[in-house]
Amino acid sequence: MADKWNNYKSSLRLVNPANKKKLDIIVVGTGLAGASSASALGELGYNVKVFCFQDSPRRAHSVAAQGGINAAKNYKNDGDSVYRLFFDMIKGGDFRAREANVYRAAEVSNYVIDHFAALGVPFARDYGGMLDTRSFGGVQVSRTFYAKGQTGQQCLLGTYSSLSRQIAKGTVTMYERRDMLDLVVVDGKARGIITRNLLTGELERHSAHAVVLATGGYGTVFYLSTLALGSNASAAWAAHKKGALFANPSFIQIHPTSIPVLNDYQSKLTLMSESLRNDGRVWVPKEKDEKRHPNQIPEAERDYYLERRYPAFGNLVPRDVASRAAKERCDAGYGVGDTGLSVYLDFKDAIEKQGKKAIEDKYGNLFEMYFKITGINPYEEPMRIYPAGHYTMGGLWVDYNLMTTIPGLFSVGESNFSDHGANRLGASSLMQCSGDGYFILPYTIGDYLADEIKTPRVKTDIPEFEKAEKEANERIEKLMSVNGRQTVTSFHKRLGKILWDHCGMVRSAEGLKKGIQMIDDLEDEFWKEVKVSGTANDYNQELEKAFRVADFFEVGRLMCQDALDRNESCGAHFREEYQTEQGEAKRNDKEFAHVSAYEYNGSKKEEILHKEPLVFENVELKERSYK
Ligand SMILES: Cc1cc2nc3c(=O)[nH]c(=O)nc-3n(C[C@H](O)[C@H](O)[C@H](O)COP(=O)(O)OP(=O)(O)OC[C@H]3O[C@@H](n4cnc5c(N)ncnc54)[C@H](O)[C@@H]3O)c2cc1C
C-alpha cells in the first residue's frame, strides 16, 4: 500500500507537451478542488476551460472553510506519520473507504502544505517561525495547519492566484456566472457540457476531450445547512442521469457545532469550527429544564458529557459521535435555550488558563461571527451550538484515477465519494480537494488523454449537443410553465425537513420508507404548484433555485433508498435498529463492507445498486472506540 501510488504514477502514460496544447479539458468548479485542478492542468500545457456559477472563482464555497487543513508533517514530534493519518481517516470513516485511496490522500497531504506555503498562504506560525498546528476531532496528534478561522479563504486565495496566473498566460479560460445544466456524452465518452449564462439566460455549448467535475457537496439538500446557499447537486446529478454511478448517497455528515436554529425564517446555519473544540468544553446542565443563566450554574452541576463518555478523546471525538451525543442529551431533556435543542460550548477555562488574547489570536473571527449573529459575547458566556447538515461523503463514484463510470468524466474534491468513508474527519476535506487537484488528477488524466491525441477538437454542432441543449430548454420551459402558487424555497424547506426527520442524524427502516413516500408526494406537488417568477432569458435566481430543488427530490429519494438498504450503522449513518448497548454505531462488516454505487433508473424508480467490495489488508476491522 505504501508504494502503490509511486509505482502506479511511474506506470501512467504521458502526453507530450506539443500534444497537450491540442487537448481541451473542461473543469466545472473553482473551489479548492476545481481551481487547483485547472491551474495544475494549465501549467502542464493543456487548454483548460473552467466554469463556476459565482461572479468570481474566489467566491466558491471553499472560501467558507474555517478550522484548518491536515498534513502528516509531524512538526510537533508527537508521533504523527503518513500511516497514522491514513489510519485515523480509515477508522474515522468507520472502515467504509478504500485503503489505497485514503493512503494516497494522506501521502500527498505533505506536498499540499508545502505547495500552499510556496503560494504564500499565511498559515499560523509558532514563536520560532515554523508552521503551527492544532488538533481536530478523532485524532490524538496535532496535524492541522490553519490560518485563524479562515483557512479555506486563505487557501482559496492562494489557489486563485495560481489560477489567475494561468488565465493571464492563456492556458486557462475562465467562464464565471455559468450554471452547468447537462453533460454531453458522445460515443460513450464525456465530450462537453451545456451551460446557462446566468446573466443573460442564454444556453451555451462547450466541448472538450475530457470533463472534470469539481462541483462540491450537496449538504444543502437539508435546506438548513452550514453550506453556502448555492451549493448543489445538480451538475453531479446531470452526470448521474447520463450514466455516472453515484456512491454512498446516504453518507452525509452532521456537524456537531453549528449555531442552532433560532427561528423559522433562517435560511442557513452558521458553522462554529471544530477547531473550537480544542479549547472549548461541551456541556449541559445536570438538571433537566434548567432555567438559570449558564454562568450561574456551578461547576458541580454541569455535565461535560463528552469528557464523561469518551475520556480518551474528550471534546475531540469525531463529528458523528459528538453530534449524536448532543442529540441524545437534548432528546433526554437536558438541552438548553428556548427550544431545548442546543448545548453549551464553553471557553471559560481556556480563557482563565491561556488568557483572552491567546484565545482571540486563535479564534477571534469565529467569536466575532458568533457575536454578530446571536448578540452573545462568547468571551463572557458559553456559545450555544447544535448539529447541522454539513458535508457529503457520498458523491460520484470514481476509480483510482478519479474517473467516473463515464470514460473521460472525472470528479474531484467533495463532489466525489472517494476518501472519507462513512464519516469525514475535520480538516481532511481541504486536504483531499487540493491533493486531488494539484497532485493526483494531473497524473491520472494524462493516462486517459494519451489515447485522445488523435481526436480532433470536438465540434458542438453535432446531434449530441443539439439534443442536450434541446432537453435543457424543455426543462426550463416546464419549470416556468407550472405557474403555481408556492415558492421554490417553500418546497426546499419542506423537503429539508423530511430529510432531517427521516434521513438525518438517526434513521430507521420505518422512517425511511415514510420519507420516500413523503418525498414522492412533495415532488408531485412541486410540479403542479411551484411558481418560478421572472423570465427564462434573463438573470433569474428563482429559476436557478428551481433547477436545484427539482434535482434534490431525486437526490433525497436516493439518500433514503441507500440508508434503507444499509442494514447497519456506520459513521454518520446511524440506524436506530443497529446500535450497541452503549448506543454506539454497530457495523455489519460481513454484509456491508462495500461501497454502494447506484445507477439511475428513471424518475421515482428505485435505482440499481452495484456493490464494490472493500478489501482491508492493512488495518484490522474493529469497533470504533474513542473511550
Ligand atoms: C462552514 C464550513 C466550514 C468548513 N471548514 C472546513 C475546514 O476547516 N477544513 C476542511 O478540510 N474542510 C472544511 N469544510 C469542508 C470544505 O470546505 C469543503 O468540503 C470543500 O471546500 C469543498 O471544496 P470543493 O472544491 O470540492 O467544492 P466547492 O468549494 O463547494 O466549490 C464548488 C464549485 O463548483 C461550482 N459549481 C457547483 N455547481 C455548479 C454548476 N451546476 N454549474 C457550474 N458550477 C458549479 C461552484 O461555482 C464552485 O466554484 C467546511 C465546510 C463548511 C460548510
Short description:
With 627 residues, the protein is of the alpha+beta class. It contains 17 helices and 19 strands. The chain is globular, with a radius of gyration of 24 Å.
Tag the structure with descriptive keywords.
19 strands; alpha+beta; 37% helix; Flavocytochrome C3, Chain A, domain 1; 5-stranded parallel sheet; 17 helices; 5-stranded antiparallel sheet
Q: How would you describe this structure to a colleague?
A:
- This protein has 627 residues and is of the alpha+beta class.
- The protein has a domain at 254-390: Succinate dehydrogenase/fumarate reductase flavoprotein, catalytic domain (Flavocytochrome C3, Chain A, domain 1).
- 37% of the residues lie in helices and 15% in strands.
- It has a 5-stranded parallel sheet.
- α10 runs antiparallel to α11 and α14 runs antiparallel to α15.
- The chain is globular.
- It starts with a helix and ends in a 14-residue tail after the last strand.
- The mean pLDDT is 96.
- Flavin-adenine dinucleotide (FAD) binds next to α3, α6, β6, α7 and β15.
